Amino acid sequence: MKKNIIIANWKCNPETQEEAKRLFEEIKNGIENSNTEVIICPPVIFLTAVSFKESGIKIGGQDCFWENKGAFTGQISPSMLKDAGCEYVIIGHSERRKIGETDEEINKKLKVALNAGLKPILCVGEGSEEREKNQAHDTVKKQLENALSNIESVIKNSDSFIIAYEPVWAIGSGNPCSFEEAEDMSIFIQKTARELLGVSPVRKIIVIYGGSVDESNAKDYITKSKMEGLLVGGASINSEKFIKIINSI
Ligand code: PGA
Predict the structure, then answer these.
(1) How large is the angle between the packed helices 136-147 and 103-115, nearest 10 degrees?
(2) Going by fewer Cβ within 10 Å, which terminus of the chain is more open, N or C?
């Protein structure tokens, strides 16, 4: 049976290791559902504090650098994430694009992360102005073209590639994307990524949705919008809400 992917992006939360451990344990103990692949992306400093081994929960980074080691103060590399037990890494989140991350940097990060054996979760999505001007598809297409440029040689061994559609106006706003709009964008992303990456029977493009997901709308993004998973921010640092989201799928 196909498993839906539910990703928790804790962002810059919680403030202490104790709270991080508690949150992780509460989530772990609340999961009743084995139809989902749950991935938690805590702040990097808590990666080794959460006891994910044998928990059934996978862990991931929220970002990574485009070199594996060297004189790059403050950076965390893909090989370090891998060594800490990460299987996944979020790349190109809009909150990082907002503080200056470029498509070119996202492309470099994707290549190094793939080479290090991580599964990237590439985030794309238009801002409110672009949506109002009817430029949502053009924006997402450009982000995909730039992010996936010349990636063929490094992606060749991956059987799947995850893309999160995260309209910027829906993130943390309490104003989620309609199920119809999300479905339309999911089909568009599938088609565009397939054209860019080449069609292969072994490679699957997995499109997931993020932006004000909560326990009341989570299931509908899977059933109505035909998303194959969710990227959850705010509701993922509330164990009760996040457990309800997982168990509703
Ligand atoms: P949100 O964040 O669920 O708080 O809207 C989603 C995200 O930023 O990935």
Answers:
(1) 50
(2) N
Two tokens at 107?
Answer: 């492309």
Taking the C-alpha atoms of residue 241 and residue 156, their distance in angstroms, rounded to an integer, is 37
**81/10 Cα distance (integer angstroms):** 16
Q: How confident is the model at residue 202 (pLDDT cuts 50, 70, 90)?
A: low
Residue range 40-59, pLDDT digits in tens:
999 999 999 888 888 899 99
Residues 186/216, Cβ–Cβ less than 8 Å: no
Ligand 1 pocket mutation, candidates 89, 98, 166, criterion most atoms within 8 A of CB: 166
Query: Phi and psi at residue 91, in whole multiples of 5°?
Result: -135, 135
Q: Note the pLDDT tens digit of each residue in 106-123.
A: 999 999 999 999 999 999
- Ligand 1 centroid, distance to 54 Cα (angstroms): 27
Number of H helices, E strands in the chain: 10, 8
Could you tell me the pTM of the whole model? 0.96
What is the CATH number for 9?
A: 3.20.20.70
* Contact residues of ligand 1, CB 6 A cut-off: 9, 166, 171-172, 210-213, 231-235
Residue 166: what pLDDT? Answer: 98
